[in-house]
Specification:
- By secondary structure, the chain is α+β, with helices and mostly antiparallel strands.
- It has 5 domains: about 220 residues, P-loop containing nucleotide triphosphate hydrolases (Rossmann fold), CATH 3.40.50.300; about 110 residues, Beta Barrel (Elongation Factor Tu (Ef-tu), domain 3); about 70 residues, Alpha-Beta Plaits; about 110 residues, Ribosomal Protein S5, domain 2; about 80 residues, Alpha-Beta Plaits (2-Layer Sandwich).
- It contains 16 helices and 37 strands.
- The strands form 8 sheets. The chain has an 8-stranded antiparallel β-sheet.
- The longest helix has 21 residues.
- It starts with 7 loop residues before the first strand and ends with a helix.
- The structure holds guanosine-5'-triphosphate and magnesium ion (MG).
- The site of magnesium ion has 5 residues, from helix 1.
Length: about 700
């Protein structure tokens, strides 16, 4: 069955690791009648955590999609991973959803990932709510968790449901919006709808008052009515809350015990009644002139859609997940892949419950589905009916923070490894793969050791190959500190005619980051113009391998000031060789130094780890630039040499018990000397010898 745009809702469940997202997803499917029996994450049989890597580790690694029907609406629900290593899949579901639910553990309140996710939702201006899980634990505190949210995020969440008791005396929840109570019945039974028990009536009425105020704030006409009459009808409340939620004036809060199916019916009712319709949202595309344009989700326009994710399934092959932005996508039709500039025929289209696919005929704007076995579609590609020239913006993802160099243990497996790595970059856009020509290494990068380890394990298993990893080489540079000059004559007499070229070079330092400048200062034809390209080539070759440790030379200006040629024996080659050697000579006399890359690092940690993290950064030769603290979470900004950061994701994990995270980007090159430089030179010598042997 296909659902028109008005009848689709998209929600992503996100949150700190282990807050119960997958359990909530599973039991929403059960409550929605999709599965006959809910499974536990421990059993390894949940709809969402279905890949072998998820079953082995009992955590979510990939985004999963399912849907339930409620009040003739199709509610698409994403379950997302909590570990920050898999943030790519979380961010893509944020893009595809008009509402995000943050799961928060009622025992611990806001945790570090909750804060990072909240910040991400804030910049995306995404309507959001919170679901407080674990109300069956004695330490669970619903009001305390909401107060924590209020303090940290400066918004006051308004409960849609409130818990009746906690820990062993937990009974269920009250749906304050619809004035009903739901009693918990156990793991395999739906919660039971009853009248609000007398003992909770007063509390429920007080919370309902706040909800009415929130609804009244959503719409001016309702504000007036509320002021006049002191109350609103149920229809008016829905209308007000829909508007308040879409306008970010209202953050709904829910309580429950998902493994016991508690608190889920009122949540599904809310999704069907109040959560934003796709038509309230827009995506952003670039037109032919690279100008950004908002594209409202609208079924009345011709087809346009975005490929949000690609997966490779053992049975179905390549799956391209698409979100329809405008129009509709029908099975068996021709589409245009705007990004690849190619027409393509789409065969069957599907919706899914986890990895189980269901064939459908049509997908309307706002809905999310799957195209299988596409020849051209890749993640981030734009599909349209014809060539509209509009391309949706690529998903913005954080830069990788952890890199390792890899190679297949057996040389014959290199190609297999390369293909599998390319496929992995397609499945997870935070994962990168590149061959570094300078260090001659295949370097893979991503969001952390866990993500990279899982990708490599999967490749080893599926491809049946052995893979070795090591810490990647740092791309050092060399430069000079003072002016110098040198001359070199290249002269060779072999058989017929010989080789002859003489150059005199002046070199001098340039400011950091300026690269290289060449000037021809020859007057009067000492070196004819046609040999100058040879001279430049020689200098470039000389700069490719410096005189200290054979690293590329940067920030140098070079001028040819004099030279000599021979009418018969001179050639471009002779001048190239002369210039290369002259450059080397000049460099040796110009007080050369090694430069190391220094990165700008931002570390996010709970305040209690601040001291340890700062002293670790100082020990890594880091320079602390500043620090802010909001709601118990500190952002530390520092500059740290790259060579000290190669295992930082591992170090930070151990300092902060896995809660800290960081972002990193290149900042500048800085000179090194003394022991540190000596070590680099020694390591380079060993590395160059190995290189020559190969
Ligand atoms: N007692 C109790 N246990 C819960 C509740 N919610 C989740 N759990 C348990 O908490 C554990 C973690 O739950 P998951 O659903 O895997 O948590 P998650 O948020 O999906 O975890 P990641 O995907 O790793 O981020 C499981 O053993 C659940 O059974 C709850 O409300 N009460
Ligand atoms: Mg999970």
């Amino acid at each position: 069955m296909s659902y028109t745009s008005d009848n689709v809702r998209n929600v992503s469940i996100a949150g700190h690791g282990g807050t119960g997202k997958t359990t909530l997803f599973e039991h929403l499917l059960f409550t929605g009648g999709v599965i006959a029996r809910p499974e536990t994450v421990d059993s390894g049989k949940t709809v969402s955590d279905s890949s072998s890597e998820e079953i082995d580790r009992k955590i979510s690694i990939h985004a999963s999609l399912g849907h339930v029907e409620r009040k003739n609406r199709k509610i698409n629900i994403f379950d997302t991973p909590g570990s920050s290593d898999f943030t790519g899949d979380v961010i893509l579901t944020f893009r595809a959803s008009e509402f995000v639910l943050l799961a928060v553990d009622g025992r611990s309140g806001v945790q570090i990932e909750t804060i990072k996710l909240w910040r991400g939702l804030e910049t995306r201006k995404k309507p959001r709510g919170v679901f407080v899980t674990r109300m069956d634990a004695d330490q669970a505190d619903f009001a305390g968790t909401l107060a924590d949210i209020k303090e940290k995020f400066k918004v006051d969440p308004v409960p849609i449901t409130i818990p009746m008791g906690r820990g062993s005396s937990y009974k269920g929840v009250i749906d304050v919006l619809n004035e009903k109570a739901y009693l918990v019945q156990g793991e395999t039974a739906l919660e039971k709808e009853v009248e609000i028990p007398a003992e909770f009536k007063e509390e429920a009425a007080a919370v309902r008052e706040r909800l009415i105020e929130a609804a009244a704030e959503g719409d001016d006409s309702l504000t007036d009515k509320y002021l006049e009459q002191g109350s609103l009808s149920p229809e008016e409340m829905h209308k007000g809350l829909i508007e308040a939620l879409a306008d970010h004036k209202f953050v709904p809060a829910f309580a429950g015990v998902p493994p016991k199916n508690s608190g889920l019916v009122p949540f599904l009712e809310f999704l069907a009644d109040v959560s934003p319709a796709p038509g309230t949202a827009k995506d952003i595309a670039k037109d032919g002139e690279d100008k950004e344009r908002e594209v409202p989700i609208d079924p009345a326009k011709p087809l346009s859609a975005l490929v949000i994710k690609t997966t490779f399934d053992q049975f179905s092959g390549k799956l391209s997940w698409v979100k329809i932005i405008t129009g509709k996508l029908a099975a068996d039709c021709e589409i245009f892949n705007v990004t690849e500039n190619k027409k393509e025929r789409v065969g069957k289209i599907y919706i899914c419950q986890g990895k189980k696919l269901e064939e459908i005929n049509e997908l309307y704007a706002g809905d999310i589905g799957i195209v299988t076995k596409s020849s051209t579609l890749r993640t981030n590609d734009t599909i349209s009916a014809g060539d509209s020239g509009l391309q949706f913006l690529h998903l913005r993802l954080p830069e990788p923070v952890h890199s390792v160099a890899v190679n297949a243990t057996a040389k014959k497996d290199e190609d297999k490894l390369g293909e599998a790595l390319i496929r992995a970059t397609e499945e997870d856009k935070t994962f990168r793969y590149e061959f570094n020509a300078e260090t001659k290494e295949t370097v893979i990068s991503g969001m952390g050791e866990l993500q990279i380890g899982i990708i490599l394990d999967k490749i080893k298993q599926n491809q049946k190959i052995e893979v070795e990893t090591h810490i990647p080489h740092v791309a050092y540079r060399e430069t000079i500190n003072k002016k110098s000059s040198a001359e070199y004559t290249h002269k060779k007499q072999t058989g017929g005619h010989g080789q002859y070229g003489k150059v005199v070079l002046d070199i001098g330092p340039l400011s950091r980051g300026s690269g290289y400048k060449f000037e021809n200062k020859i007057f009067g034809g000492a070196v004819p113009k046609n040999y100058i390209p040879g001279v430049e080539k020689g200098i470039t070759e000389g700069m490719a391998r410096g005189t200290i440790a054979q690293y590329p030379v940067v920030d140098v200006e070079v001028a040819i000031v004099d030279g000599k040629y021979h009418p018969v024996d001179s050639s471009e080659l002779s001048f190239k060789l002369a210039a290369r050697n002259a450059f080397r000579e000049a460099m040796k006399q110009a007080n050369p130094t090694l430069l190391e890359p220094v990165m700008k690092v931002t570390v996010f940690v709970e305040e209690k780890y601040l001291g340890d993290v700062m002293s670790d950064l100082s020990g890594k030769r880091g320079k602390i630039l500043g620090q802010d603290s909001v709601g118990g979470i500190a952002d530390i900004r520092a500059q740290v040499p790259q060579s000290e950061l190669l295992r930082y994701s591992i170090d930070l994990r151990s300092i902060t018990s896995g809660t800290g995270s960081f972002s990193v980007e290149f900042d500048h090159y800085a000179p090194i000397s003394g022991r540190i430089a000596e070590d680099v030179i020694k390591a380079s010598e060993a590395f160059r010898v190995k290189e020559e042997e190969e």
